[in-house]
């Protein structure tokens, strides 16, 4: 049973890798997980998801203000970009870069479009 579950997990991860959701950083972390603590990857991804959820919620509050503080939104997405790069979440990292680009341009419409993509993919 455990071998079957591992095969399913491998197939899922390989599919996400092929689709560009994950990159080689994730594979490296996964290799570390296999050689060390069995819960390392689970804990790391859990922390990433918790932090991403918190920052996305805080960014939502900022985006719902009549006047958007683009610098604060950019700061959240700067952190999210770094965190996503650290865990190998390639497509999320790219979306964070697009959000930051919209912040640089004070483009509220573009910001909402890319923010929604980031929020839905987190």
Question: Helix and strand layout, with pairings?
Answer:
Blueprint: H1 2-19, H2 24-35, H3 40-63, H4 70-87, H5 90-104, H6 108-121
Helix pairs in contact: 3-4, 4-5, 5-6
Report on this structure.
- This protein has 122 residues and is an all-alpha fold.
- The model has no long low-confidence stretch (mean pLDDT 89).
- The longest helix is centred in the middle third of the chain and has 24 residues, at 40-63.
- It is elongated.
- It has helices at residues 2-19, 24-35, 40-63, 70-87, 90-104, 108-121.
- It contains 6 helices and no strands.
- The protein starts with a helix and ends with a helix.
- The chain has a single domain, classed as HPT domain (Four Helix Bundle (Hemerythrin (Met), subunit A)).
- It is found in: Cytoplasm, Cytosol; Nucleus.
- Residues 43-107 form the HPt domain.
- It comes from Dendrobium chrysotoxum.
């Amino acid at each position: 049973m455990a071998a079957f579950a591992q095969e399913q997990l491998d197939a899922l991860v390989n599919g996400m890798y092929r689709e560009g959701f994950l990159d080689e950083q994730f594979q490296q972390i996964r290799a570390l997980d296999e050689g060390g603590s069995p819960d390392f990857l689970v804990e790391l991804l859990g922390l990433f998801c918790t932090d991403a959820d918190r920052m996305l919620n805080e960014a939502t509050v900022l985006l719902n203000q009549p006047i958007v503080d683009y610098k604060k939104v950019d700061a959240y997405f700067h952190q999210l970009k770094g965190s996503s790069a650290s865990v190998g979440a390639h497509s999320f990292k790219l979306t964070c870069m697009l959000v930051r680009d919209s912040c640089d341009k004070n483009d509220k419409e573009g910001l909402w479009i890319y923010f929604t993509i980031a929020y839905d993919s987190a």
